[in-house]
Amino acid sequence: MVVLAASCTTSRQSSAGFRLPSSGDPERGRVAFLELKCYQCHEVPGLTLPSREATSARPVRLGGETDRVMTDGYLVTAIINPSWAIARYPEVRSTDSRGASRMPVHAENITVRQLTDIVAFLQSRYVYREALPNPAYN
Ligand code: HEC
Fold first, then answer.
1. What percent of the chain clears pLDDT 90, i.e. is strictly above it?
2. What parts of the chain have a pLDDT lower than 70?
3. Which of 9, 43, 74, 105 could bridge to 59 as Cys pair (CB 3.0-4.6 Å)?
4. 62 CB under 6 A from ligand 1?
5. Is the CB of 101 under 6 A from ligand 1?
6. Which of 42, 114, 25 has the alpha carbon at shortest distance from 50?
């Protein structure tokens, strides 16, 4: 018999027990997204956003079709601790010269209310599609 004892232990970094308040509101999240100027580096398919300041960096898409499961925990981490959860898209430069996310750390200037609402807003913008079959296995 194989006993997988290690898989039963939880570490301090485990996401077990993580839950945002259920009061997250996508519309308030959209407003916070604008107030915090997230659109300076992000585009959201289907949404008209203020124009970005002139910059050479291509915007990173948030929302739209994806086959990655965007958990609340992942999105919160991406927002408050971006260098831990770096999204890499071939067409976008994600990191600076030191390998850290180009996204600023939003730990000082975001309230839990805004964070909860922004996550509700982003979740409302993702459309999950079935993972595409891998041709190598067909
Ligand atoms: C100065 C540019 C910049 C600003 C401002 C910015 N971001 Fe980002 N963001 C990035 C970059 C670059 C990435 C891709 C690298 C990474 O995941 O850290 C990213 C990634 C993300 C991701 C993960 C996307 C994925 O597909 O996994 C989320 C979620 C996100 N940002 C949300 C926000 C929110 C919400 C705000 C406003 C509070 C914001 N960002 C402001 C540059 C920015």
1. 56
2. 1-9, 55-56, 131-138
3. 43
4. yes
5. yes
6. 42
